[in-house]
C-alpha cells in the first residue's frame, strides 16, 4: 500500500477538487453538503492520544481514494474535451495534436503544384 501522506494535505486536496466542481455550478463550495460532511468527518477523527486509531486511518484512506477519483475524472474530462470534441480534423491538425509537422511539398523544376 502506498503512503497516504498527511490527512491535512488530503483534506486540502478534496476541498480544491470541490472548488473546481462548485465553480462550474456557479455557487460557493462552502454552501454544499459535501463541504459540511468533509469538515465534520475530519473534525470528528482528529488525532488523539490513542496509539492506533483505526477509524482515523480508515477515513484517511477513503478520503485519499476519493481524492484520486475526483482528480482523475476531472483530468479525463479535460483530455476528452481537448482531443475528442472537435469532430473531423484535417491531416495537418491531426499531426499537430501529436507534435508532428507534415513535410512541405518541394516546389521547383519538374514538380506540379
TrEMBL record:
<dbReference type="GO" id="GO:0005739">
    <property type="term" value="C:mitochondrion"/>
</dbReference>
<comment type="function">
    <text>Plays a role in the assembly/stability of the mitochondrial membrane ATP synthase (F(1)F(0) ATP synthase or Complex V).</text>
</comment>
<feature type="region of interest" description="Disordered">
    <location>
        <begin position="85"/>
        <end position="113"/>
    </location>
</feature>
<dbReference type="Pfam" id="PF13233">
    <property type="entry name" value="Complex1_LYR_2"/>
</dbReference>
<comment type="similarity">
    <text>Belongs to the FMC1 family.</text>
</comment>
<protein>
    <recommendedName>
        <fullName>Protein FMC1 homolog</fullName>
    </recommendedName>
</protein>
<dbReference type="InterPro" id="IPR037667">
    <property type="entry name" value="FMC1_homologue"/>
</dbReference>
